[in-house]
Amino acid sequence: MRAETEPVRFTKPFTQQEPLSEAAIAAATEVMRTGRLHRYNTLAGETGEVALLERDYAAWQGARYCVAVTSGGQALQLALRAMGVRDGAPVLANAWTLAPVPGAIHAAGGRAVLVEIGPDLRIDIDDLRNKALHSGARFLMLSHMRGHIADMDAVSAVCEDAGIAMIEDCAHTMGAWWRDRRSGDFGCVACFSTQTYKHLNSGEGGLLTTDDPEIAARAVMMSGSYMLYDRHGAAPGPEAFEPMRLDMPNLSCRMDNLRATILRAELPLIEGRIARWNALYAALEAGISGAAGLATIPRPEAERMVGSSFQFQVTGALAEDVPGFVARCAARGVELKWFGADRPAGFTSRYDSWRYLGTAEDLPKTRAALAPTLDLRLPLTFEPADATLIARILTEEAAAGAPARPATAAAE
Ligand SMILES: *Cc1c(COP(=O)(O)O)cnc(C)c1O
């Protein structure tokens, strides 16, 4: 406890999203009144809400096909299976990602080959090129982790040279762009999450988009469509299903009409929300820029980001006591997550805690990039003034950090 003046605290929760829009609540209520919550439970001539969502989302993303499923992780898994990953096939993946990504590779039967990230938190192009050429991998699962889009020109060139098919994990880049193309338009398949903490909130949910009719047909069958694939909203015609429909397992991960209704009502609101997220991000970035011991992450010119979370790095003496800094900020109500921690906590884990992957490989660049990296959520229940206050607390606690270090820690 500090003696004289009580330091200012931040009091809003970092996990509180906005309520759903009244339009979404009304539409969801309407669906509940019909009792037809299963996506294939339609009246004659009726198009179900999930099919309509698939149509809306495909049009918005600019993809030919879309399949709605129960989670982003399930979308990743279907994407991998639909592209033929099985039997230990190596799959390249940037090592900084969320646990459902290696989980999806594992579940599909693939073998994750983790690729280093650089100090800017994006996939390391040299390591990608090296592993693309020497690991035997035919697939890359690229996570745009926390919204940091890789250099897509370079990644695409490496994939093309090495004959690698890319799957984009756009859980944090729904609505983001690289140059004049949406994130998700670079690979063979893109996967999105509509879990509460992402850019659209239906509690849980996932969307898969692709322009490839074979991949789309396989994903539809595996999502659990029985022989009702004609009730999909943005799927290829029956000719795509005829040759393969008896060869696809039903993995039963369909989205339901209730969630689809919510998402359809919320999708038109996303651009306004992106502007608000980016205003929060900008306020935070401006608030800590130049602060002793804190560094912002440079964002490439070509990226049009969605700032739904904020990452920064600690430098100098502060980097030697990250847990102390995190604890001081927490005491003032600012919840930071540390991806560099040796032990996984909450949603946050480092690649070396996915022990089931069986890859004992050390990734020194990734560990070096994550060691000073801190992360915080920016829910839309925050206002720019909140971001400014958070920045002030970070700045003050960073300044308080260095001189307060115990003598033992300073000894080396
Ligand atoms: C959330 C997330 C996923 C998976 O989404 P779920 O819908 O929770 O399964 C995949 N990748 C990243 C990077 C995520 O943050």
Q: Quick summary of this structure?
A:
The protein is α/β, with parallel strands linked by helices and 412 residues long. 37% of the residues lie in helices and 14% in strands.
Describe this structure in words.
With about 400 residues, the protein is α/β, with parallel strands linked by helices. It is built from 14 helices and 14 strands. Strands 1-9-8-5-4-2-3 form a seven-stranded mixed β-sheet, with helices on both faces. A four-stranded antiparallel β-sheet has the order 10-12-14-13. Helix 4 links the parallel strand 2 and strand 3. Helix 3 crosses helix 7, helix 5 runs parallel beside helix 6 and helix 10 runs parallel beside helix 13. The protein is globular, with a radius of gyration of 22 Å. Pyridoxal-5'-phosphate (PLP) binds next to helix 3 and helix 4.
What is the helical fraction, as a range of percent? 25-40%
DSSP, total strands: 14
Side-by-side strand order of the widest sheet: 1-9-8-5-4-2-3
Structural class: alpha/beta
Q: Give me the Rg, rounded.
A: 22 Å
Strand content: 5-15%
Output the number of helix runs: 14
Spans where pLDDT lies below 50 across 5 or more residues: 404-412
For the sheet with most strands, the description reads: 7 strands, mixed
Spell out which ligands are present: pyridoxal-5'-phosphate
